[in-house]
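Let's practice the habit of predicting before peeking. Look at the sequence and jot down your guess about where helices and strands might fall. Then scroll down.
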Amino acid sequence: MTAFPEGTILGYPRIGRRRELKKAVEAFWAGRTDLSELERAAAELRAATRDRLASLGLGRGDSSIPESFSFYDQVLDAAATVGAIPARFEDLRSADGTIGLAAYFTIARGEGDRAPLEMTKWFDSNYHYLVPEIGPDTVFSLSSERLVREVAEAVAAGFVTRPVVVGPVTLLALAKASDDAPDGFDPLSRLDDLVPVYVELLGRLRAAGAEWVQLDEPALVSESLPASTEQLADAAASALSVLGEASERPSILVAAPYAELGAVFPVLAAAPIEAIAVDLVRGGIPEAAEGLAGKTLVGGVVDGHNIWRGDLAAAFDRLEELRGLGAPVSAGTSTSLLHLPHDVADESRLDPRLVSWLAFADQKVEQIGVLARGLSAGRAAIADELDAASAALSDRLHAPGVRDGAVRGRELTEADFARVASAERETAQEALGLPVLPLTTIGSFPQTGEIRRARARFTRGEISREDYDEFLRREISSVVALQEELGLDVLVHGEPERNDMVQYFAENLDGFAVTEHGWVQSYGSRATRPSILWGDVSRPAPITVAWSAFAQSLTTAHLKGMLTGPVTILAWSFVRDDQPLAETADQVALALREEIADLEAAGIAVIQVDEPALRELLPLKRADQPAYLDWSVRSFRLATGGAAAATQVHTHLCYSEFGVVIDAIRALDADVTSIEAARSRMEVVADIAEAGFDRGIGPGVYDIHSPRVPTVDEVESLLRRAVEEIPTRHLWVNPDCGLKTRGYDETTASLRNIVEATRRVRAEVGAVV
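Done guessing? Here is the structure:
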């Protein structure tokens, strides 16, 4: 067994510095390229990544470079590798039983009548993973050797990389029971059947040249999964006892990021593995445990979840403290760098002073190199680098705009956090004259190539503000006319002026900066550019009012004003870490409160404040959850607390685990809440009914993450299930999420089917169409 390197990262961005993977994958999906061209583009990207990491200081032959590439999602990768695919996709296997790339994409995106795997958030990040479906009859077998081939590819190029795979416990803990599973079936009960396939995979990886393998087991730190901490710990002990005793395998690193390992750490310490990665950004130094002799502890002291340069001296202090447990220590990132953009050096438009405070993925790799050198040669050897990081931190804390007296001087009372009683609001909102099962969409309409080109031309100065605004007016007019023709009840303006639901606000609020190339993968081929929230937040002028008012002037139907909520703006930005999130959230909320008042003054009677990230930021440890839910709810209520009783306030939540935060969603005190439900086939309505949710609710009937067009019968079936559980006076009809990522042909066809299905169900419940 080879020694573990003194510095490493747990993963690296895989979409490419200029989103090369996105472009290659989407060209393949569109039929513009074939499979061989896609494979060639992916191989070139992997090679460029290995070369880049080596140039930044990670070793070519010491396993410090992770092999963490994915065409779509690492959980789907693991499921495909072990053959854990739903029965509806079994016919897509090749003749030899393997799961090829075309089949892999079909499982991810769906096809025809075959719904894709459900998608949800990866722990408390903005990354989405595909949820495996596993039942008592799922047959596990080594069904893909793609990771094995990638290791061999690296060896041929002169690298010894460390393959990364989602571990067996996390794979099963994140899975849902398949449709044919009996009630109460727990996928984790299949662990003994799954582990032998991992044993076989480890053997193949060793034969391909892997000296180390990384098993990602973040489920071990979460207290928000169906399985208890005790069950997960027992499962880890069982799985690792088998994997560790395998005769032909690489050395095993188990990584459990995103929170403190706590009681699970002694289990890993006692397991027959060679290294443990602990997140020391989100957790403390673990207590000493038996079995650490001979194991390496990878101290995750470089934040893989945020872009601040940070306190490098304090990080080195934690590594030295970790050494006190008596085991060899390696410097590491707290999580995979998947959550970060590639390189801050690409950002020529950012203020140089701000740049000096930042560290994107490549700069984090360089920090690992510094800390590794310090572990080897002593603190004095890296004193200059530690001092430079400390100076940048001090400069950031005292720079103009970081603290604004005018923002901090506003006084709030409890009255600012509450509207009038919901019953009074419901009466006042009867004036809206909406039918039973009102039809609406979530906000955005397709961002066509024409829209993107016009925005790019305006940004480059190739067209004037007047010409660009005229283009946007034509686009909004077209979207409003389409909705009227389709027969929707509450319309939206389509948001053609918005590049992103957070960045648009960041560009119009003080305290934010936006990047040019700071792309981060959200899911599959989709990427976002998180803004940088670096200082106190205020609103210098109205943001959305002019476009909402213009759209309302085109129709007699009600037009929704569209805002992004304070928690989501924080969750989908890189947020300052020098004050509590609650303080920052309230600053954003007050800016939105001013925007709502201006929308009302412009005649907008329906206003949606999106909070799709409310569940996303929920801490993984139960003890931390009440405080989070308190401040996150209060920030939403601060934003909406000034709205008049007759103003109908909507919110939207993009995930299906509604029951987990049902009390918090009720406490938001929105008049209508829309949620993702189609991809999970309306499972969420049971939680809604059981909770006695007594406000407007719109469980989605159209999965916008898939190119499939739902049939009228399919939508009708979903609506009937919702009507069975939810009083019709509370029920709204809408897609799962915004339509930004879809094309107009599929969007129009899907909305027509939704309207027809709604008419059928309305007629049955006695509503006037």
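How did you do? The chain has 26 helices and 22 strands.
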